[in-house]
Amino acid sequence: MVDLRSKFTGALIGSAVGDALGAPVEGWSMEMVRSRYREGTGWTMINGRYTDDTELMIGVAESLIEHKGFNGADMARRFIQNYDATRGYSPWTQETLQRIREGVRWDKASENLFGGKGSYGNGAAMRVAPIGLLYYDDADTLRDVAYKSSSITHAHELGKEGAALQAFSIALAVRGEKEGMVPELQEFARSEVYKKKLGKIAVLLQKERTEREIIAELGNGEAAFNSVPTALYSFLRFDTFEASVVYAVGLGGDTDTIGAMTGAIGGAYYGEGGIPNQWVERLEEGARGMSYIKRLAEELYHLKKSDCNFMSAQRYTF
Ligand code: F2R
Ligand code: MG
Ligand code: MG
């Protein structure tokens, strides 16, 4: 039995670990990733440095903790305050944060991207773990907060829904619901795009598949619908955190992000103790490194424990 506190720390540390493992090989093909790491498990983390995925996740956690729930203006402000140009942000997210810095409202700045449709990139899903933890027992609020937090940078419905599905996968992992995860997510999903991908996951899990089949059916790219389902599949296919994350990164493509999302679900399910020690120890330290991320997870846990009544009455502010 994995305790709740360990699931909270496991999700945030697991996300950072997946990000750091995938970061040096982001954008590489499956073959190139394997030649840099190795076949099978037992990977040595190259340098432990995390990217935009974790930096934004830290901003989400900090804001939820400070406001005991969602506050859009504050979350956007933290994204801007924490921003480090060397962490590999997409140009569109950089532009959106710049617009907010210049005074555009936090929920308006991302609307004009991609011809007014907004982004369906995975940038909102990759940072959503703290929301999956804080609202793991309240699917409606989880969806609502995942959507609102996404809209800071990702206005497209499929970008927001990807974030909500990733958050709900983490919530189900916290609850220990691995077997029933796909049907629960199918019920939770709204768009045909995600319903179809979830149906494919159920079929793909029925027998051994090659990596090429998985990439062809689920994707390994930057669109939320080509990476959120892949992370979920990577988690469901294996019985350990290590095997899932090595598989996810080993698919190539958006390796840091698919690694981070797989690591968040796996960490929420297996707890911090399920993450290989040598990876946790190799994660970067410093002002916002491993110990700080762990502290944020513990604060989220205490908020969940102590403020349950307050949160269900208050929910969020704007
Ligand atoms: N930016 C990167 N990696 C690039 C190189 C990093 C390098 N290693 C370095 O250190 O410099 N990674 C990070 O960005 C991804 C998250 O992306 P986000 O924030 O969602 O970006 P964006 O631009 O909004 O969307 C990603 C792409 O999806 C397509 N797309 C999105 N919406 C679309 C729409 N409505 N219509 C058509 N296409 C759409 C575009 O191709 C976008 O560029 C993560 O991987 C993170 O790690
Ligand atoms: Mg990244
Ligand atoms: Mg990435």
Q: Short description, anyone?
A:
By secondary structure, the protein is an all-alpha fold.
Task: Give the SSE string.
Answer: HHHEHHHHHHHHHHHHHHHE
In DSSP terms (H or I, runs of 4 or more residues), the helix count works out at: 18
CATH domain fold name:
ADP-ribosylglycohydrolase fold
Proportion of strand residues: under 5%
CATH class: Mainly Alpha
Which small-molecule species are bound to the chains here?
ADP-ribosyl-L-arginine, magnesium ion
Helical residues, percent: 55-70%
Largest sheet: 2 strands, parallel
Question: Biggest sheet, strands in spatial order?
Answer: 1-2
Low-confidence stretches: 312-318
Class from helix and strand fractions: mainly alpha
How does the overall form come out from the CA principal axes? globular
Residue-averaged pLDDT = 95
Radius of gyration: 18 Å
Task: Note the main attributes of this structure.
18 helices; ADP-ribosylglycohydrolase fold; mainly alpha; binds ADP-ribosyl-L-arginine; 318 residues; globular; binds magnesium ion; two-stranded parallel sheet
List the helices and strands and how they pair.
Layout: H1 4-22, H2 30-36, H3 52-67, E1 70-71, H4 72-82, H5 91-101, H6 113-116, H7 129-134, H8 139-150, H9 157-174, H10 181-188, H11 192-204, H12 211-218, H13 228-237, H14 241-250, H15 255-270, H16 277-282, H17 290-306, H18 308-314, E2 316-317
Parallel strand pairs: 1-2
Bound molecules: ADP-ribosyl-L-arginine and magnesium ion (2 copies).
